[in-house]
Amino acid sequence: MAITTPTTRYLVYYVAVFVATLWFFYYVPSGWIEALTAQTATWALNLTGYAASWQQADGYTTLTLMGQHFVTVSIIRECTALNVLGVMTGLILPLKASPLKRAFGIAISSLLLFILNIPRIALTVYLTAYDTWPFTLIANRSLETYHYPISFAFGVVGVAITVLAVSRWATPELADTLLGVVDKILSLGRKFGANTQASQGST
User: Fold this and answer.
1) Positive or negative CA dihedral for 68, 75, 150, 154?
2) Which of 128, 149, 144 is nearest to 68 (CA)?
3) At what angle do helices 173-201 and 82-92 cross, to 10 degrees?
4) How far apart are CA 87 and CA 164, in angstroms?
């Protein structure tokens, strides 16, 4: 498949919209999505037979699981996939696609990222509350023992699934544009390197 390399002007526009979108999402209030995330993760744990509960008070959202260990975790902005949705929205908004297709792409991203985030939270809390092999071989286990590797794995897989789904069913322009943007940046980098070498060679 041939890669359509964007113009430098479009690259600047694409990056500017992407950065502006990230900035906007950074300031979006997250209390409502923290509550929805905690409530849905609690529902998922209860559905599988575990005694979980959640609450939101004084601006703090928590999820509690009563297992072998009594575990209470804080559900903060970073737990909600809101920032990742900001990344996806920033990638979709500046695409050369119709407003309807871009809106559909953002809607699919929102749904998929939220759905994929729930098992990540539920699994992390479950492993913290219950002694599960082979993690029992690790001494001094804590929430962080499971949080970082699970979040990394779900982050990589979740974003990959979301990009593929959006590219297939909503905005096919996404995959081609991302490849083109990367190719353009590499091309500009090679050009800058060649000019630098030529300048050094002439001195």
Assistant:
1) positive
2) 128
3) 80
4) 15
pTM score, whole prediction? 0.85
* The pLDDT of residue 29 is above 90: yes
Length of the chain: 203
Burial class (CB in 10 A: 0-12, 13-18, 19+), 27: exposed
| Model confidence band, residue 20 (pLDDT cutoffs 50, 70, 90) | very high
70-87 pLDDT, tens digit each: 999 999 999 999 999 999
Q: What is the maximal distance between C-alpha atoms in the chain?
A: 74
What band does 164 get if pLDDT is binned at 50, 70 and 90? very high
Distance CA 78, CA 142 (A): 18
Side-chain-side CA neighbours of 142 within 13 Å: the count stands at: 3
Q: How distant, in Å, are the alpha carbons of 17, 32, 47, 81, 189 from that of 122?
A: 34, 19, 11, 14, 43
Residue 171 three-state SS: coil
Element (H, E) at 70: strand 70-74
User: Alpha-carbon distance 69 to 30, whole Å?
Assistant: 29
Alpha carbons 154 and 162: distance in angstroms, whole number = 11
The whole-chain average pLDDT of the chain stands at 89
Helix, strand, or coil here: 64? strand
